[in-house]
Please model this.
Amino acid sequence: RYVRQLQRLQLLFSPTAADARGAREFVEEAAQDFARQHPDVVLYVSPHSGRGPAPVLRAEYLNGTVRDELIASKTSEEIVQLATKLANQSGLDIIRIRKPFHTDNPSIQGQWHPLTNKPSILTVQGPRLQPQ
Amino acid sequence: MVVLSAARWVRSRLSDRFWRVQEVLKYARHFRGRKNRCYKLAVRSVRRAFVRSTKARREKKRSLRALWITRIEAASLEHGLKYPAFISNLLKSQVELNRKVLADLAIYEPKTFKSLAALAQRRRQEGFLAALGDGKEPEGIFSRIVHHH
Model:
């Protein structure tokens, strides 16, 4: 069963700044629809009054990663698209994956070591024969 | 940043020089010497590093294949076969494993590799018999070709 990796979305913006206009429109119009469409994500709207930092959409995931996305000078539709993109992501870091496969047990028959194909006389120590 | 109004063209100064410099220096942090700190030297080094990394993508395929071939050669010599004999006889027995997989088998599944070497050796003997024996003995078992349609 699918478990959404996004825990909470925090919308930090100031109610008076000019670049937070899209954020304000998002809160007025589309935030409720978004919250209803994604019932397992908690949406926090926290306006900080006065001249604060740039408006940001903070996404926290189940594995602890926190991802901040700037929403300054973005329209409401763009913010909705951004929020859905964050909701569909998992919290893994977005870096180049070196290999698309991984195993914890790569060897079933036992990994090769220099004595695998040698006669077992070299490794096995039997009971020491006494000189008669 | 530069205000370009025709009547009042005022030359304004750059305010985010720090971040423009950091964009380049962040790729040079693990270099040796002054090129990891000084922008002028770092620009040249970073550009060369990027060019080399693009070109190296074509070389990587070649060097990895050479590595696999070395490993398969070493493993088949342990079982008494040389690399050209091993590969050609495996292909003749319709075992189409690529060198990457063969190298991984040689490392992590030595018994499987041993059986593959034995198969190649058997096919080699049958090939010799077919070439030198001249038709009196029946055809070898492992020389039979399976047609998949």
Notes: Residues 21-37 of chain A form the longest helix (17 residues).
